[in-house]
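Regression test case RT-17, inverse folding.

Input:
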């Protein structure tokens, strides 16, 4: 049975708290696992969430601030300790190559796994698989930062009433899907486009074109909301978003499920992030993330 869900491993920003670990997010997409921004403590959070090193196929780092990347050393060593049998690909800003290498080889260990380094230097496609296309877009932060977007290819939904009207049944349904027509009946006459699902991961950034491009039409958007709206100037100075800004992005992009995360330790009441997001006009599904939360990708439209 295929599973598409986000497993939240940590939700703190620069400073972890008693209740919030540094960042870490696993996207389960059918048989693959993509780990985003493994901050300090990610390996232990994976254990608590029931996530194994064998579940990982890609690691995507938005930027090289410690709360988004210090967990790389432990995760990479665990991948090798467990002798994961498949290749794992790591994406990260090319300008941070020296940081990646330092974290990859922070201490001595035995390398047993093929870890492919695939640094990101420009906007565009990073990987194309039968299940999804992975793209990156530049964000606006004091250090080079990229957000990531996963897009499933569009498919086809067969329409039983139209198939019946044309007398198409049994093996002929598969045949018209494969060949595009059957006995003068075109595939478009008996089916409709099934829109592929879309997921985006947007971390430390000010408002910019990349944020809006990543969020557009997403079924599930994970986005930082480090500050509350009353601290908007502070957010801009440090290259971050507020809860209201993140919600307006989601509202304007027609996002179906919004996940707010990466919270400053200065705010004791997480409910205020939800209140400000709703006040900004976002009416879709909304999750104010907590450590070890699981968020399913919404079913197809």
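Golden output:
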């Amino acid at each position: 049975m295929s599973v598409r869900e986000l497993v939240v491993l940590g939700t703190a920003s620069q400073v972890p708290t008693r209740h919030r670990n540094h960042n870490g997010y696993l996207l389960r997409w059918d048989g693959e696992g993509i780990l985003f921004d493994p901050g300090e403590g990610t390996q232990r959070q994976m254990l608590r969430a029931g996530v194994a090193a064998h579940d990982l196929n890609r690691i995507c780092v938005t930027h090289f601030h410690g709360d988004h990347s210090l967990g790389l050393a432990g995760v990479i060593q665990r991948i090798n300790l467990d002798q994961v049998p498949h290749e794992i690909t790591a994406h990260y800003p090319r300008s941070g190559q020296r940081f990646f290498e330092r974290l990859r080889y922070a201490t001595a260990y035995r390398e047993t796994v093929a870890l492919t380094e695939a640094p990101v230097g420009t906007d565009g496609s990073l990987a194309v698989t039968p299940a999804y296309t992975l793209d990156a877009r530049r964000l606006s932060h004091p250090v080079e930062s990229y957000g990531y977007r996963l897009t499933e290819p569009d498919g086809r939904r067969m329409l039983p009433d139209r198939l019946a009207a044309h007398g198409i049944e049994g093996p002929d349904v598969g045949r018209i899907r494969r060949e595009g027509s059957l006995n003068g009946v075109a595939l478009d006459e008996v089916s409709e486009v099934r829109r592929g699902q879309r997921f985006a991961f947007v971390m430390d950034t000010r408002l910019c074109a990349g944020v809006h491009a990543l969020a557009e039409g997403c079924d599930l958007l994970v986005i930082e909301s480090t500050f509350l709206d009353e601290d908007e100037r502070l957010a801009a100075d440090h290259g971050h978003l507020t809860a209201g800004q993140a919600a307006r992005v989601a509202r304007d992009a027609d996002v179906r499920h919004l996940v707010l995360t990466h919270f400053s330790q200065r705010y004791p009441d997480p409910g205020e992030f939800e209140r400000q997001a709703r006040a900004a006009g976002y009416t879709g599904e909304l999750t104010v993330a907590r450590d070890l939360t699981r968020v399913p990708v919404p079913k197809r439209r």
